Amino acid sequence: MVGTFVMEFAVPQIATILERAGADYFIIDLEHTMFSLETVGGMIRAARGSDIPAIVRIPSIDRHFVSRTLDAGAAGLMIPRLESSEQVELVVQYAKFPPDGDRGVAFGIGHTDYGDFRKFDGVDLILQANRDLVLIGQIENRSGLDNLDNILDVGALDVIFIGLYDLSTSLGVSGEIDHPKVVSAIQMVIDTVKKRDIILGCYVNDFSSGKRWLEAGVKMVAIGNDAFLVTSKFSQENQKFKTTAT
Fold it and tell me: What b/e readout covers 38-49, taking b as 16+ CB neighbours within 10 angstroms?
């Protein structure tokens, strides 16, 4: 699975553009952006229309971030800086309907594609929603590394996603994602997660730098972000023209 983060181009069209480019999914970032929930809802609606899963990285584990993004129709949630099993349990409480959690019920809105809720089988719908929901936990610091087994023991996460840059910063080598400390920590996460029935995910800048993690067992790759990809591609092509002109 290959996708990217959306951090700048907060328009519904981004969903269709990424789907046409072959992306398997995209992550709407609420941790590092100024996106409003209304804007996020528009992108999610377009994603459902373009048949590409939209995952939302929430800024914190609060009921209103969880429930409102899921009610809009997000396919899943990404939880940044995951550090404890208690955090996982809280996410489940907010994100899943009873009996698995305590998510509030609202039919006939975005996540049910505005169908006539009177025709729904409510029990089947909420059970299916619980099954379909994708929960992604990011391991990004020492606490997450130290508590990884406890986090996995909850049994609620579908993906463990390695946050390279935060992890490098936590290990005292900020931005040095090829530093032995970082590489060793990533390998520890990979080795631990491989023992469970959980998908491994990782951020990469490009294929050449991310190939090693594919070979190590990572199945979900996020290549950069929307602004980074535009800047990188334009810079490459621009440089070719300028070099030729001189």
Answer: ebbbbbbbbbbe
Which segments of 73-156 does DSSP mark as H helices, in order? 85-95, 122-132, 142-146, 148-153
184-225 per-position pLDDT tens digit: 999 999 999 999 989 999 999 899 888 888 998 999 999 999
The amino acid present at 179, given as its one-letter code, is H
Structure tokens at 26: 């995209």
Q: Which range of residues forms the domain containing residue 111?
A: 2-245
Task: For residues 188 and 166, give the distance between their C-alpha atoms in angstroms, rounded to a whole number.
Answer: 16
Q: What is the CATH number for 95?
A: 3.20.20.60
pTM equals 0.93
Number of domains in the chain: 1
Which amino acid is present at 92?
Answer: V
**DSSP code, position 111:** G
